[in-house]
Specification:
Elements lengths: L11 E4 L1 H4 L5 H15 L6 E4 L48 H9 L3 E7 L2 E2 H5 L11 H4 E6 L6 E4 L3 H17 L3 E5 L14 H15 L4 E4 L9 H7 L2 E3 L8 H14 L8 E3 L7 E2 L7 E2 L4 H14 L3 E3 L8 H7 L2 H4 L7 E7 L3 E8 L4 E8 L5 E2 L4 H6 L9 E3 L5 E2 L8 E2 L4 E5 L1
Parallel strand pairs: 1-2, 1-13, 2-3, 3-7, 7-8, 8-9, 9-10
Antiparallel strand pairs: 4-6, 5-6, 11-12, 14-15, 15-16, 16-21, 17-20, 18-19, 18-21
Length: 432
Amino acid sequence: MTKNDFAITPPMGWNSYDYYDTAVTEEQVKANADFMAKHLKAYGYEYIVVDIEWYSNDAATKRDKYQYIPFGDDEIDEYGRFIPSPNRFPSSKGGAGFKPLADYCHGLGLKFGIHIMRGIPRVAAERHLPVYGTDVTAADIADPSSICGWNPDMYGVRDCKEGQAYYDSLISMYSDWGVDFIKCDDICDSWMYRDENFSGWHETRMLHEAIMKSGRKIVLSLSPGPAHIDKAFHYCDNANMWRITDDFWDKWELLKNMFWRCEMWQDHVKAGCFPDCDMLPIGMVGAGFNDERHSNFTMDEARTMMTLWCMFRSPLMIGAELTKLSDEDMGLLTNKTLLSFMEDGFKARQVARDDNHAIWVTEDKLKGKKGLAVFNLSEEDIYLKDYLKEVDAAEFSIEGIEWIDIWTGETVSLSNNSDTVIKPHGVCALAN
């Protein structure tokens, strides 16, 4: 198995974090899986991902003080590997791990994923638990000088054969469970370590090697961002997707900033390797943070987000509670014309950007398919016709093509007399 013989197109699915924070349960995961299988699978959404702290029995019980409880009540096996909390995931009892839940998702025609933290549990080092397949303990391979600044659970893993053996055993266990997707955190970027000594660099390689040894097609996603552009080839050599931003939420300032980030990363998008714009805050989010709300994005802003994510070919991971999606939310997530830009063969680029507007184009030359999007980043109406010269200057031919507005389905003329208005924070997205 080579790295890029799977995840040829950007992974699409659901992640529990934006709605549930650390407290999602098996019943809730199954409910979202059922919804995805019934309503979203046909559009390409297939991954069900359980995010952070699934091994914690007391997650979210001290939310007024901690998001992640220091030395909390966590489940761990005899080899220093976290296992699911049986209180929250009853089917994991008796050493079953996540296999029953993964089997449930597979039975729906979906794929199953989990979040992990970089490193080895601190409690495993404290207890000197053995590293599977070696004659050393967790304390021997743990690097106490390599920690996460915002989560207290882990130490880094030293770059040695016994450290690799730990990661090999970890991925082997996940493979036995039937895991198809791993989101590894505190590994893509660290605000604590700004030099080449950050152990996340070698731990990324160790994770990749362990996945290759397992023989299972496991997508590796790296978080958090912002990813380092000078490490682009490192990410692509070892992972399938990597975050180019810190946590993305439903704020216009964050969305506007993504145009700059996507411009920086657009040349590194290819089959099996996808810079990641982070989860889609569409629908109901924030319940686990005591702030349940419908996304703060207006419809214009949500269309801008979906258009940019799809043209850039970012992974699409829904952050909302799926069972609470409205018809409007579903319309944003299931636009077939827009989603077609995610297919292998499309190559996109940003051809213009300033503080008031941005223009993206994409094309699949073999299929003769094109897309054009003019984004209004300002607070005033703008007119499509005023920006067509910038498209021409980018040597992207638009003449003689019947263009359809992706969001309205209407035919759009690209003549100089076009009176198409683009609302503030909105987009005119076209396809042939």
